[in-house]
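Whiteboard transcription, Tuesday session. T.W. wrote the structure tokens on the left side:
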């Protein structure tokens, strides 16, 4: 695979991809999310201390849950379970568990029939991978506006998820503002 040959996939990531037979298209997506997340991190790093390795590993493994489920509302939970079982650090497990959309509150998780738990990204690394994932569709980078358009299509297709889309848009804008504010302080002061 062209992209896989261009970058060095850490052995522990490749081992998990292989063990769980993660599909090629999801691997490519994870690589693109890593690339976007690392670009975001480089800009944010000017003003804050960031664990770049956690962002890299977390981004590469953020969708490992798709290896065991086809349910978008479960893949992040299943991914966290896999990584916990495989002995990854809590930092990496939380990046995976909290990357869905722009996060879910405990109450929203309950409303969706998920385990009642906070799935909101809290650490800077969690926020960067979550936002990086928002800016990637398949294995292509997209603009924030394209992400918002994609969300509106979900709402059109599934009106019962309007509440979730609205919360996701609100949180995504906060993530964008937080991460771009820290890179462009002088422009927003």
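and on the right, the sequence the group agreed on:
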């Amino acid at each position: 695979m062209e992209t896989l040959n261009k970058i060095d996939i850490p052995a522990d990531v490749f081992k998990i991809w292989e063990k769980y037979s993660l599909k090629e298209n999801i691997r490519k997506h994870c690589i693109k999310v890593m690339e976007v997340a690392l670009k975001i991190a480089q800009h944010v790093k000017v003003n804050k201390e960031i664990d770049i390795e956690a962002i890299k590993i977390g981004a590469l493994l953020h969708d490992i849950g798709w290896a065991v489920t086809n349910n978008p509302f479960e893949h992040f939970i299943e991914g966290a379970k896999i990584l916990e079982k495989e002995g990854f650090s809590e930092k990496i497990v939380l990046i995976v568990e909290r990357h869905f959309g722009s996060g879910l509150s405990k109450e929203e998780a309950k409303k969706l029939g998920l385990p009642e738990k906070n799935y909101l990204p809290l650490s800077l690394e969690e926020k960067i991978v979550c936002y990086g994932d928002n800016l990637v569709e398949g294995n292509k980078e997209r603009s924030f506006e394209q992400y918002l358009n994609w969300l509106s299509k979900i709402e059109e297709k599934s009106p019962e998820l309007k509440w979730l889309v609205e919360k996701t848009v609100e949180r995504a804008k906060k993530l964008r503002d937080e991460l771009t504010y820290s890179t462009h302080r002088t422009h927003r002061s």
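Someone added at the bottom: The first strand starts at residue 136 and ends at 137.
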